[in-house]
């Protein structure tokens, strides 16, 4: 059986794959289970392994993580060249009975015209892991804490959900952190405010918009607020880089004459986010964005190599930004 599991939430996708593998192979070991990171493994290498007979067992499971070649492409952008797609397509059209292949895709949409996706539709199964809604989060939180005999006051629960947003992976991590901190006691609002940082994606979005509008003072204010919540500067740099890359994609499609709604649909993005981006991006061009990304890379490298403290490296990035306007 070949299965494609896709979602923008990696934790959900991996959890579903783990559950399916366990049903298929209850006792997993090196003879019947293999996993590949498809950022370093080619589709051709994956196809070759799928064809190999398992050793000492009747069936094997293969998990191919991060199959970006199955994502819906961004219109107008050239597709990367993945080696061995034909071989993988051939296997998907005629799969071996002894191999259960699970391909994980971290995206909201698949490329429906991709020959591999079409082959799996005909010969396997495609599972979409939808983002959980607020009711699911509350139910999961209640069940998790009840099993451990811990009470969370309503305002604390509301604040936790507000801070983690729709990030299921972060929700799980923060809930476990609060459980450890509570040590069997009630979880209060103060604990959530102390231990759970505000939603970083929203803050990075606000900061990137402030920067392109030359409001460095506002960007510094957001950063100071995040410091109080013990922000990880490396993570913040990654989020900012993602925001500026998104801005570049929006600018590209806008130049092609796409409407705001068409851009949101093409990129699988929130229409409000696209609208706000369009309002704030006219003061920058692709070259400027490339320079910004390069400076973020320099700040990231300085932190990771230890040549500058996280606070100094990021503050220097913001200060240098003010020199552009």
Give the domain tally. 3
Low-confidence stretches: none
Report the structural category: alpha/beta
| CATH class division of the largest domain | Alpha Beta
The end-to-end span amounts to 57 Å
Give the averaged pLDDT, no decimals: 85
CATH homologous group name of the largest domain? P-loop containing nucleotide triphosphate hydrolases
Question: What would your notes on this structure say?
Answer:
The chain is of the alpha/beta class and 325 residues long. Helix content is 58%, strand content 8%. It folds into 3 domains: 2-128, Rossmann fold (3-Layer(aba) Sandwich); 134-195, Helicase, Ruva Protein, domain 3 (Orthogonal Bundle); 200-321, Zinc Finger, Delta Prime, domain 3. It has 15 helices and 5 strands. It has a 5-stranded parallel sheet, sandwiched between helices. The longest helix is centred in the C-terminal third of the chain and has 23 residues, at 233-255. The N and C termini lie far apart (57 Å).
């Amino acid at each position: 059986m070949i299965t494609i599991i896709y979602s923008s939430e990696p934790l959900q996708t991996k959890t579903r794959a783990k559950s399916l593998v366990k049903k298929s192979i209850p006792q997993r070991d090196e003879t019947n289970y293999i996993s590949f990171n498809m950022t370093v493994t080619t589709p051709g290498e994956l196809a070759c392994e799928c064809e190999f007979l398992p050793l000492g067992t009747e069936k094997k499971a293969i998990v191919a993580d991060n199959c970006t070649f199955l994502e819906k492409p961004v219109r107008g952008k050239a597709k990367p060249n993945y080696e061995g797609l034909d071989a993988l397509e051939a296997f998907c059209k005629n799969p071996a009975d002894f191999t259960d292949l699970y391909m994980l895709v971290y995206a909201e949409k698949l490329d429906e015209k991709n020959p591999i996706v079409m082959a799996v539709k005909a010969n396997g199964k495609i599972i979409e892991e939808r983002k959980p809604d607020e009711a699911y989060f509350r139910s999961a939180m209640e069940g998790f804490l009840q099993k451990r005999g811990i009470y969370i006051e309503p305002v604390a629960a509301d604040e936790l959900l507000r801070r983690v947003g729709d990030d299921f992976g972060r929700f799980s991590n923060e809930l476990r952190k609060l459980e450890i901190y509570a040590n069997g006691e009630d979880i209060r609002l103060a604990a959530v405010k102390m231990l759970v940082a505000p939603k970083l994606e929203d803050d990075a979005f606000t900061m990137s918009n402030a920067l392109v509008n030359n409001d460095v003072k506002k960007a510094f204010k957001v950063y100071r607020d995040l410091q109080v919540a013990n922000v990880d500067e490396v993570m913040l740099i990654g989020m900012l880089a993602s925001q500026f890359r998104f801005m570049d994609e929006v600018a590209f499609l806008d130049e092609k004459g796409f409407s705001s709604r068409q851009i949101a649909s093409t990129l699988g993005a929130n229409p409000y986010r696209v609208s706000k981006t369009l309002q704030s991006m006219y003061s920058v061009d692709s070259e400027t964005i490339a320079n910004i990304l390069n400076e973020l890379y320099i700040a990231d490298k300085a932190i990771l190599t230890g040549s500058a403290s996280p606070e100094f490296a990021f503050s220097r990035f913001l200060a240098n930004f003010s020199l552009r306007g």
